[in-house]
Amino acid sequence: MHWVSAKRTTVNWFACWSTPWPGQWSRRCRLDRGLAMRTKKIDRLSEDAIHRLVDDFYAKIRVDPDLGPVFARAIPGDWGPHLATMRNFWSSVMLTTGRYKGNPVTVHHRVDGIELDLFDRWLALFEQTCGELFDDNLANAFHAKAARIAESLKLALFYRPDRPWPRRTS
Ligand code: HEM
């Protein structure tokens, strides 16, 4: 008798978790899937992945104490066109779609307040965003491209033949 009730208790504990009452199963499935979707990192390069990256990265940029004001001056109104340009840019870089037709060097020459030191912050935020969204392989692929482009942008904007490179800033 004792054994039966002990066994029942065990079975019942297990049943609490594994055998849902009607309606509970699908609710728990949805909850678990929702959690998994939020925590599972993106492992496949796609336009959708680029969309997420651009949205999340520029959300961070906009509230950053150093970079935020530089961007706010350059883009005082609607951010829609800039985000679309950046999606095209990353699509061209990572998926070679050719969707971006601009010239980043010319555009950055016009950015009021852009400084050599800010590139480290830009890259740190970019790396952080990639790490939050993507698995290691994909995050590293994006970050490696960004670091190479940042280096060539820095050279194009700040290199002077009469100064050592990297320029000493302190
Ligand atoms: C200190 C670092 C940076 C700052 C402050 C900065 C700032 C900006 C700003 C303000 C714009 C908008 C300009 C406008 O629409 O008038 C812009 C555009 C852009 N940025 Fe940056 N940027 C930085 C680094 C980078 C890096 C490292 C990349 C690439 C990896 C990049 C890629 C671009 C591209 C593709 C555009 C769009 C250019 C176009 O309109 O065709 N930027 N940036």
Q: Supply Rg.
A: 25 Å
N-to-C SSE series?
HHHHHHHH
User: Helicity range of the residues?
Assistant: over 70%
Strand content: under 5%
The separation of the N and C termini measures 82 Å
Shape: globular
Structural category is mainly alpha
Q: Main β-sheet: number of strands, strand sense, barrel status? A: none
Low-confidence stretches: 1-21
Q: Could you state the CATH homologous superfamily of the largest domain?
A: Globins
The name CATH uses for the topology of the largest domain is Globin-like
What's the CATH class of the largest domain, please? Answer: Mainly Alpha
The count of β-strands is 0
CATH architecture designation of the largest domain: Orthogonal Bundle
H/I helix tally: 8
Ligands: protoporphyrin IX containing FE
Give the domain tally. Answer: 2
**Average pLDDT across residues?**
85
